[in-house]
TrEMBL record:
Family membership noted in the UniProt record: Belongs to the glycosyl hydrolase 28 family.
Leader sequence residues: none
Species lineage: Bacteria, Pseudomonadati, Acidobacteriota, Terriglobia, Terriglobales
TM region(s), chain numbering: none
Organism: Bryocella elongata
Protein name: Tat (Twin-arginine translocation) pathway signal sequence
SMART domains the UniProt entry points to: PbH1
Amino acid sequence: MQRRRFLQNTATGIAAAVTGLGRASGLGPEPAKAASNAEPTAGGVELNVRAESFGAVGDGATKDTVALQAALDRCAVLGGGTVVVPAGNYLTGSLQLRSHTTLRLDEGAVIVGSPEMADYAVSQVRWEGRWIPGHVALVYAIDAVKVAIVGKGKIAGCDALGGRPTKTAPLRHPALIEFLRCDGVTLDGFSTSYHSMWSVHPTASRNIRISNLFIRSTGGNGDGIDIDSCSDVLIERCDIATGDDCISLKSGRGEEAYVLGLATENVVIRDCTFADSIFACIGIGSETSGGIRNVKIERCKFTGAKTFALYIKSRVGRGHSLENITAEDLDVSRMAGGFLRFNLTASGLLGEDPVPGLDGIPNAKGLVIRNVRVKDVPVLVDGMNVHPLKPLEGFTLENVTGTCAKGITLTHARHVVLKDIHVTGYAGPLLSIADVTGRGLEGAVTIEAAKAPEVVVAPAVAYKLQ
């Protein structure tokens, strides 16, 4: 285990030196302020993709990939600026943004994804928490600084290209918008549509501002925004309706992510509206092997979910920690599962190279939720799945009003604070606990905790990055 920690520290140091993405632990900068560094490059050239030198057609039938990419490349070599896409339907394969480039989609402009998988470049991409070969997104950037997509237009993926890789077709399918190892990303004002795959997926990036997006992604694994091993992120004033999670915060799975140690941290989500038809509105995990910390959710409306409005999840074999997560001033209705669940023992697939021993049991601490209004939620809080070897350290639930069918269940938790829980309509006890200490537990009914999974046995040969 000492060798593993040495490898982790070494790999983290290398990653920080090479990419500048390593982040110190602790609270760090205020996320909303840090994300202001994402402002796109001011000034520079302005290039119109319909100019004669580029020749984009925008008729929805002619492939405009070459014309659009030429404009983006020209903008970059001239020192940066703005590439303007006027009204029209631009059929295209994958497009790469370079540093200091803003892609502006005018009202009525639609970037339409090609139905040909061969039109999407192949690179190393993240899929379910591991780096694998796969197709890049319809619009993407790699190792870029200060890139932006703005305007009132739309980016529409080809729904036929969504889905999961298979043994016979192992390449990951293209996401819609993806940023890999970028510093300074701005997304503002446009709308998206795509089925069965992620819409917005920044990975190993920092200084990200996502605002005023209208995201529609239904059917299958159709996440809205996936923040994957990123730091200093602001998401605000977005309207997201999806199949899978509206927003997912994650940091990789198993030994690879545990050794690299790239956390998702310093994230603010505010003034958004969420609706989901397959899983959760906001999912934190289950890929947590790089750690997730310093998350603030505020002034959001949750208008429907197949499971829970907030779902904090991991499993034995993921390892690392989820810490300092605050949610306040929330309106929650039409949940099929409930308001809040934390499942820290058995969410998601175990996968290859899980983290062995006690290090593989995720640690959660500093969860604070207050000022919540719920309407007819089936369950207020489901906290049954916490490992007894690493209890939840610090859970505050305060000032909750409204109606629910079932109350609060907590197991293996320390320093719990329950205060001003004024809900009605529930059957059975308001509070059921097993191995819980703290304040506000008066009148609780004692229950039997769920059986905890065994820790992962260490392999005969220690894991190493390769």
